[in-house]
Specification:
The radius of gyration is 23 Å and the shape is globular. It folds into 2 domains: 33-56 and 397-487, Arc Repressor Mutant, subunit A; 61-363, tm_1862 like domain (pyruvate-formate lyase- activating enzyme), CATH 3.80.30.20. β13 (340-342) and β14 form a beta hairpin. The chain is 35% helix and 22% strand. The relative contact order is 0.15. The protein has helices at residues 35-48, 70-78, 115-132, 154-167, 187-195, 210-216, 222-234, 253-266, 297-312, 329-336, 376-384, 398-413, 418-424, 433-444, 465-470, and strands at 7-13, 20-26, 86-92, 94-95, 107-108, 138-146, 169-180, 200-206, 240-246, 270-275, 316-318, 322-324, 340-342, 345-347, 354-357, 362-364, 368-372, 390-395, 415-417, 449-451, 454-456. The protein contains 15 helices and 21 strands. The strands form 6 sheets. The protein has a 9-stranded mixed beta sheet with strand order 11-12-10-9-8-7-6-3-15, sandwiched between helices. α8 (253-266) packs parallel to α9 (297-312). It is of the alpha/beta class.
């Protein structure tokens, strides 16, 4: 056994004096591992290195097709039940700088000039949607995503909110959330959010380590993030979420733990810990990360475990990759089994209809999914011609709805009663017998427990959630969709 101790220099910008402080963090000595543990680790790695969806929807986006058109979505909107509130997603596909890990549909712009005409088209698309609804709708949740929606000027943010309030009512306690890049964030933006009643901000941090930030082309010292927190709180924009990523170049268990500890010092109410999705066949610029070296499956699993351990010492684990204070609504939802999952990830929003506007945005209804044109030019052309800019989608079958229910329960609650779900959908639970057979191997390895018709993911196997859920995915082996590793 090698008992040499290694050191890794971690540089984080601390809030006290704004100066870099270099800390030497000792790696723990390598411990002896029993043969049984070694076999377990190897088998887990084999499963967790498999490429499976994140299941923010089911079926997943790679299976969408051109058979869903503007006419299809016109029909869905016209039949929408407005006795229940809707959820609205507003996509802002612009960033001031390109981060090399990013998998989003965005455009880098060095000036604000392209944003103005984009907003005109975005609001025109919204008008097309509103005209097709059977009446005035109520929103229970509004989310601004991107890209970098915090790039919008305060005046333009006020303008968009004014148009939204003209078209929709907001339910009591409606959530209004926005994603924020702390680089270039201003006090005037925080003031605008406070004035418009934004109820939650989500700050993209990813990692606080200086070497990691340099490798991923996203330099934002701790002090910059701390000032963003302060500006938001001063204007009553709370709670505040933080996004972190594991699996990036230059990360070690020690550096990612230090990033978690820095996040806790900031007082984040909720943390999302995402695994970096390396998909250079979709985002060619991600290849720039390869020259720094990307962690392999074993290192990714170690990074995820180290970050989770540090987070769970302070937060309640939520589903696959979220952590929240015990007083957070999401933590409450895990207790009452009312947590949900949609294209924005985990949510407490119960709306069954999600309308999304902007290029590449995906809407979800009880009938199916519809994705807008990803190409901004084609998207704008459709809107200017008075057509919903639908590019593709999927009509949900009875089996899709059944399996979507199972997968969402596993992803949110870590357990599902297959018999109860089957009866709810009017089918015989025997439809799941083949899936239970496929779960046997995962059960032998401790990744899942099966008692009768009840399937449960043990708490210490949360990391395997996507792998377990994929067993119920009838679409996984078909199509040409490519996904990121499960961990």
């Amino acid at each position: 056994m090698n008992d040499h101790k290694h050191h890794r220099s971690t540089t984080i910008l601390l809030p006290a004096d704004g100066a870099h402080q270099t800390c030497l963090v000792k790696e723990p000595p390598i411990k002896d591992v029993s043969p049984q543990e070694t076999v377990l680790k190897k088998t887990w790695l084999q499963h967790l290195d498999a490429r499976v969806p994140r299941y923010t929807s089911y079926p997943t986006a790679p299976h969408f097709h051109g058979g869903v058109t503007a006419a299809t979505v016109n029909s869905w909107l016209e039949r929408t039940d407005l006795s229940e509130p809707l959820s609205l997603y507003v996509h802002v596909p612009f960033c001031a700088k390109l981060c090399w890990y990013c998998g989003c549909n965005t455009t880098v712009t060095k000036t604000y000039a392209p944003v103005k005409p984009y907003l005109e088209t975005l609001l025109a698309e919204l008008q097309l949607v509103v005209e097709r609804l059977p009446g005035r709708a109520t929103l229970s949740h509004l989310h601004f995503g991107g890209g970098t929606p915090s790039l919008l000027s305060p005046d333009d943010f006020h303008r968009v909110m004014a148009v939204l309030r003209r078209h929709f009512d907001f339910s009591k306690g409606a959530g209004i959330s926005i994603e924020i890049d702390p680089r270039g964030f201003t006090a005037s933006r925080a003031k605008a959010y406070g004035e418009e009643g934004v109820t939650r901000a989500s700050i993209g941090v990813q990692d606080f380590d200086a070497d990691v930030q340099k490798a991923i082309h996203r330099i934002q010292p701790y002090e910059v993030v701390a000032k963003t927190f302060e500006a938001l709180r001063r204007n009553g924009v709370m709670p505040i979420n933080v996004d972190l990523i594991y699996g990036l170049p230059c990360q070690t268990d020690e550096t990612i733990t230090a990033s978690v500890e820095a996040t806790i010092r900031l007082g984040a109410d909720r943390v999302a810990l995402f695994g970096y999705a390396h998909v250079p066949w979709m985002k060619k610029y991600q290849k720039a990360l390869e020259r720094h070296g990307l962690p392999d499956a074993k290192a990714r699993m170690s990074l995820a475990s180290a970050a989770r351990a540090a987070l769970e010492a302070h937060y309640r684990p939520i589903g696959l990759d979220h952590f929240a204070l015990s007083t957070d609504p999401m933590a409450m939802a895990t207790k009452t089994l009312t947590l949900h999952r949609n294209f924005q990830g985990y949510t407490t929003d119960t709306a069954t209809t999600l309308i999304a506007i902007g290029p590449s945005a995906i809407s979800a209804t009880g009938w199916g999914y519809a994705q807008n044109e990803s190409d901004p030019t084609l998207w704008a052309q459709s809107v200017e011609e008075g057509r919903l800019p639908i590019h593709r989608g999927l009509v949900l079958s009875a089996d899709d709805l059944l399996r979507r229910d199972v997968i969402e329960k596993l992803m949110c609650n870590l357990t599902v009663d297959l018999e109860a779900v089957a009866h709810h959908h009017g089918v015989d639970p025997a439809v799941f017998l083949d899936d239970l057979d496929r779960l046997d191997q995962l059960q032998r390895e401790g990744m899942v427990q099966i008692t009768g018709w009840v399937v449960t993911i043990p708490d210490d196997a949360r990391i395997a959630m996507r792998t377990v859920a994929s067993v119920f995915d009838a679409w996984l082996s078909s199509g040409k969709g490519r996904h990121a590793a499960a961990v």
